[in-house]
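Journal club prep, shared notes

We agreed each person brings one worked example of a sequence with its structure written out as tokens. Mine is beta-galactosidase. I'm keeping it raw so we can talk through how to read the token line rather than staring at a rendered picture. Sequence first:
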Amino acid sequence: MGCWWWWWWFAVLSAAVASVCGGEVTYDGRSLIINGQRKILFSGSIHYPRSTPEMWPSLISQAKQGGIDVIETYVFWNQHEPKPGQYDFSGRRDIVRFIREVQAQGLYACLRIGPFIQAEWNYGGFPFWLHDVPALFIELITNHSRYIIFFIVHLKKHQILMQKLFLVLLMAVLYAKLYNKDCGNNEIRELIENEYKTVEANFGEDGKRYVLWAANMAVGLETGVPWVMCKQDDAPDPVINSCNGRLCGETFAGPNSPNKPAIWTENWTSSYPLFGEDAHPRPVEDIAFHVALFVAKMNGSFINYYMYHGGTNFGRTASAYVQTAYYDEAPLDEYGLIQQPAWGHLKELHAAVKLCSETLLQGAQSNLSLGTKLQEGQSGKCAAFLVNNDSRTDVTVVFQNTSYELPRKSISILPDCKNEAFNTAKASFRPELMYNNDPSNGQSVLSTNSRAHALHAFVNGRHTGSQHGSSSNLSFSLDNTVSFRAGINNVSLLSVMVGLPDSGAYLERRVAGLRRVRIQSNGSLKDFTNNPWGYQVGLLGEKLQIYTDVGSQKVRWSKFGSSTSGLLTWYKTVFDAPAGNEPVALNLVSMRKGEVWVNGQSIGRYWVSFLTPSGKPSQIWYHIPQSFLKPTGNLLVLLEEETGHPVGISIGKVSIPKICGHVSESHLPPVISRVIYKKHENHHGRRPKVQLRCPSNRNISRILFASFGTPSGDCQSYAVGSCHSSNSRSNVEKACLGKGMCSVPLSYKRFGGDPCPGTPKALLVDVKCT
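Then the structure, token by token:
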């Protein structure tokens, strides 16, 4: 995922932190220090080109509501300079508009400027034209009408650094109201390089020298804020080393100096999806456990979720084999909808940690053998993290003369060393995502070996076979029996890439495409690999841009069904947008492999025919942002590489029609604010609650199920148990019907008494949102 980060921290609009403006930014062994105050910060990655400007306000707002303090994004060089000297900061590329929105909503912003970003992004964010840059030292300063951009290209002859080419891009956006001369520098941290440690050994001593050079170059810029290198354990002082991965509470060796804070730059909320592979969602309980462990064990004070909203790999922006939907299991899904239980559970975690922040940042730490981290502040305040690291067994521990039940692999947070505010294993939110469709003369063997991603073979214009590789099998062969005619025969081989690589040493030396071509005929084997092949990049339809209104007029289209469709067929139709403001998606289950455009904008590649080991397509639903659509007459164009059936395509609205909550007496009450927590010394009246929240512009219209007692099952499948309060439904209706959100406490009083004394109770509620 990569990381050369450049942190931009803007003075926010809320009075509480307005003093950040002009304040000094430093760090010590506990945390970043902003305006003289230590901070515990939670950050969420939202990449601006993976969503649309119309989506940004909602995404940022929902992140803020989820307890996020910082919005992090890469800067995508190949999006901003697709051709040398031609810059593009429009639409999804308008990074200034994105940062403005972050600032307007009172959050900090973090820019990871690369230039190499990895990010499952085509060619790791590098513009492909860098292949043609001569081996010279180039310093280019461009004054853009809206930006001042500094590019420093460092090219060393006769050295091994990236073989002939090593590039460092420093991109500084100094734009009008985002940089207030009267207020001072609003940046608080910057990050240089991109997990370079993973490839450093490939370059020997030159790699080590480069790390020092990069660090000295960055610090020498005198930006006035700390610099960070992720996954670079030997980051030179004063640069801070940080951790990437899922288990930084267990795997991070820690800062390489006692004067540096523990920073987690990428906490992976899922696994990025690949065509041909099953999804591997990460349970939110595991995410929460390792965040709490990082805080408890490492004194962690900054955690960034990668991703908080993954979004969409529009067009051909994804790297090799990466699907169009990106990190769809993140707290905010591809469409920007809240994904429970991840969003709600992490919100509670953030609130619980913040309740401990003063003690954590100022106190002295001690560790006890029962798996506890204890922090005691100078004022006598105390906070504790009770850790059960056993993945198989629930345990009961006694801490300060009080018993606490810890589920397997969980951490309980006690902001005052007495009252349990949060447990990482106890998530109580469950949604259901739904897509609603709108009706709408001898045999020879041609043998090839390829390092592309797919290959189609044609003999004399007739398709003879296809094959493809996978993310784990970079080389594949296609051997098929063909018939040649007497005389001259034309052999055409269409080599297809589904994204370029995005990481690794010697990236510029990677090879792809055909590696060998042989023909066996009449007992003899001839090698045609080095024959003078004709070569053409791209398709005519792409050059003519026939996926646009204007371009589609440049070719002659046949009525569907009037001719036989084969490989490499373009299809077009028009459709009206579904009514309403819900996210819209295209169901391509009837297609096989290709790319799709709506009103001239590519919504990405599809590869439905590449099945996962479980026998299912990797992805069939493809996001169409509302901003791409018109009320009527939308142009839909597809390039189908194989033999899909476009009549089976449907368009649907994406919604969350049902919300379910399930809590028991072992669950904890929702984490309350620091102010309320301090006011109440006796917390025994607080109860676990079912908290229900419909998507925006939707209210609870129907109670599908409600049972206070001993309901059986869970939110996926449930039934009334042997103990059930007859008042369950009526009480939930009174509390929730007609509301966008509601909470129902697990309370005997609420439900008219105890329906079965002596039996532990639970409350399960399932509702419909319309």
